[in-house]
Design a protein that fits this description.
79 residues, globular, 5 strands, single chain, two-stranded antiparallel sheet, 1 helix, mainly beta, three-stranded antiparallel β-sheet
């Protein structure tokens, strides 16, 4: 199960993302979100469809931060 750390604005638009890979020494150690920016940090599972397309397709997704934050495909995004 591949995970991402994402920074999203209050509407769920993804501003930045990084793969969580504990075996890779280049994985991010610290991600800071500016206080008062309206942005939040979430760790989410990458959906299988997104894994198949590659992370370039991340622009077609947004973060839904309810009980378990997750990536959801935007309405009208290409299949």
């Amino acid at each position: 199960m591949t995970r991402l750390i994402v920074v999203a604005d209050k509407n769920g638009h993804i501003k930045a993302a990084a793969k969580v890979n504990p075996e890779n020494k280049y994985s991010p150690k610290t991600i800071e979100v500016k206080s008062g920016s309206g942005e939040s940090l979430h760790e989410v599972t990458i959906p299988e469809e997104l894994q198949a397309k590659g992370l370039e397709a991340l622009v077609d997704y947004h973060v839904v931060a309810d009980a378990e934050p997750r990536l959801v495909k935007r309405t009208g995004a290409p299949s």
